[in-house]
Amino acid sequence: MMQEQPAAQPATPWKIVFRNTAYILAALLIFLFALELMISSLQHLGQDAADVIVLTTSNPFTGLFIGLLVTALIQSSSATTAMAVALMATGSMSLSSAIPIIMGANVGTTITSTIVSLGFITRKKEFRRAVTIGTYHDFLTS
Questions:
Q1: Highest mean pLDDT among 29-38, 71-80, 93-102, 114-123
Q2: Which of 4, 14, 118, 140 has its CA at a distance of 20 to 30 angstroms from the CA of residue 73?
Q3: Is the pLDDT of residue 69 over 60?
Q4: Cβ-contact 97, 121 below 8 angstroms
């Protein structure tokens, strides 16, 4: 004769909070590990690569457009900012060179929403909605 298994009990609120906190801490730990890995790999750049980075980012407008372009290509301002911070931490880039890149990353985020809205250009009603939402996103993230 088979015994009946008791029904699974729903998770209590403190278990849910503990689990979600553990997930957040694990994600933060993975992010910090990836940032440290990026910093250590960028430290192995040769002097020639460091000179090119310094020369390229010496003009603030060039740095702004580099941040804008990289963010538009990879569609992640957080990744662009993390790369700028990692380059700054390794000494390959100064703070005054990293600031325009980070500002360009923020501008690149707004361009990404506009590029996505252009995908609806053949459908008039959806295009209006997409441009409207893209514009709201631009104002709220700037």
A1: 93-102
A2: 140
A3: yes
A4: no
Report the alpha-carbon distance of residue 27 to residue 12 in Å, rounded: 23
CA distance 92 to 15: 45
Q: What is the 3-state secondary structure (H, E, C) of the chain?
A: CCCCCCCCCCCCHHHHHHHHHHHHHHHHHHHHHHHHHHHHHHCCCCHHHHHHHHHHCCCHHHHHHHHHHHHHHHCCHHHHHHHHHHHHHHCCCCHHHHHHHHHHHHHHHHHHHHHHHHHHCCCHHHHHHHHHHHHHHHHHHC
Question: First and final CA of the chain: distance in angstroms?
Answer: 68
